[in-house]
Specification:
Elements: H1 14-45, H2 48-75, H3 78-102, H4 107-134, H5 141-170, H6 172-189, H7 205-211, H8 217-220, H9 223-231, H10 234-249, H11 253-262, H12 269-290, H13 298-316, H14 321-348, H15 355-427
Helix pairs in contact: 1-2, 1-5, 1-6, 2-4, 2-15, 3-4, 3-6, 4-15, 5-6, 5-12, 5-14, 9-15, 10-13, 10-15, 11-12, 11-15, 12-14, 13-14, 13-15
């Protein structure tokens, strides 16, 4: 049996190599578009508030419709779903490019396109994530997720650079057209992908229902079933709790560290740029280390999150910019490994036929804390300052995770006692 822990082991599968190339192209195209999108909104409206509104309009469907999108991923063939969603996103990008080129894009149309993009993304996100996992055996899913993180980072760098060059020489419409082509490239690759031998395949409840005379098919595919599975699965609820509290109080470093560097540490924009670079390097290192995992657990995610929180507390007391830089790298590494471990648990723990709906539940939850986190952290910084927000936020995270471990330990001790009493009663 292959017990390799190489972070690149998922790339030995031909379909995974093609999928990684497709994802790089897609991410580069997406970041080309994102590089110019905010500038485009400003050009149309002249309002910074409108820029924020367009981002909120695109994010809102994930909060409201992720459950439905996840159910669609479970109900429909995954490859077809991913290919169609990519093609639709490409059509939206081409439509925007034509409207920009002809001067027909106004705020109303822009918001409508953003909303449609958000709706399609509620299906595309889980479909593409699970499709990638189908290409490798279960023990190599962490490697696939780690490689995906590296591909995302590389695509972001390439896309941001190409976006600036494209706009300078060809105009804004060309960036949208390039993104449309990147989506079509992914859609054209998907039909040729093949699951690896031993990979966990999507269950076919509809087919089983048909074989059994059609009974229970609808009940097996409901949105409610996915939600109830998630809520009744303690490890998934614990994962949501750990990730949520970390997201709100610990991982908005672009906000907390920006204020710390430019405020108490008396640095400038250049200094924060250095911090951002170190964070990016740490994220890449963490993705490589996370890809070495085979079967991570929620316990590991919690321990890593607590370790990152304690590093954050120490960072809050940094007496100088140099000391902060020394701490930022391991903070980013720990965060990235924790993310890879958490995604692996989330995407492999549920039964195959429920994974789309579980990712749908996760999409709604993560969008909620993504929207609530920055305002809550901003309020905390107003009350306690940048240092106080880092220190108190880290203590809240570590304390909450520690309390969770203690409660879990008490339950595991109490359960055998309860069972022995049950057995005694039965014997009597």
């Amino acid at each position: 049996m292959d017990v390799s822990r190489s972070p690149w082991r998922s790339l030995k599968y031909r379909s995974m190599r093609w999928w990684s190339v497709a994802n790089f192209v897609s991410n580069a195209g997406t970041w080309m578009q994102l590089t110019v999108q905010n500038l485009l909104v400003l050009q149309i409206t002249g309002s910074a508030a409108a820029t924020g509104l367009s981002m909120s309009v695109q994010a809102a469907p994930a909060l409201l419709m992720s459950l439905v999108g996840g159910a669609a991923v479970d109900r429909w063939p995954r490859k077809v779903t991913a290919a169609v969603s990519q093609a639709v996103l490409g059509a939206i990008a081409f439509t925007t490019a034509v409207l920009v080129a002809t001067g027909g894009l106004n705020l109303t149309v822009l918001m409508a396109l953003a909303a449609v993009t958000g709706v399609v993304a509620t299906v595309d996100g889980p479909a593409c994530a699970l499709l990638g996992n189908d290409l490798v055996p279960p023990e190599d899913v962490p490697s696939a997720i780690g490689v995906g993180s590296l591909v995302h980072s590389a695509g972001r760098l390439a896309g941001a650079a190409l976006g600036g060059v494209t706009v300078a020489f060809l105009g804004t419409a060309a960036a949208y057209a390039a993104n449309g082509l990147s989506f079509l490239f992914v859609a054209s690759v998907i039909p040729f992908l093949r699951p690896a031998y031993g990979a966990l395949r999507q269950a076919a409840p509809a087919r089983r229902g048909a074989e059994a005379g059609g009974e229970d098919t609808a009940a097996d595919m409901t949105v409610r079933q996915g939600l109830m599975f998630f809520l009744r699965r303690p490890r998934l609820v614990a994962l949501a709790g750990v990730t949520g509290i970390s997201a709100v109080f610990g991982r908005n470093y672009t906000l907390t560290l920006a204020v710390l560097v430019t405020g108490p540490l008396a640095g400038g924009a250049g200094s924060f740029g250095t911090v951002s670079t170190v964070l990016a390097v740490g994220g890449i290192i963490g993705a490589v280390l996370g890809a070495r995992l085979r079967r991570p657990s929620v316990r590991l995610v919690g321990l890593l999150a607590a370790a990152g929180a304690l590093l954050q507390v120490v960072a809050g007391f940094s007496p100088s910019f140099a000391v902060l830089l020394v701490l930022v790298l391991p903070m980013a590494v720990v965060e990235s490994v924790s993310d890879t471990a958490g995604k692996t648990v989330l995407q492999t723990d549920p039964p195959a036929h429920l994974r789309g709906r579980v990712l749908g539940v996760w999409g709604s939850i993560s969008t909620a804390w993504g929207l609530a986190g920055p305002p809550a952290l901003g309020l905390l910084m107003e009350l306690a300052g940048a240092r106080g927000a880092l220190v108190s936020g880290g203590l809240i995270i570590a304390g909450s995770i520690g309390a969770g471990f203690l409660l879990r330990g008490r339950r595991s001790v109490a359960a055998p006692v309860f069972l022995r009493k049950e057995e005694l009663a039965t014997v009597a």
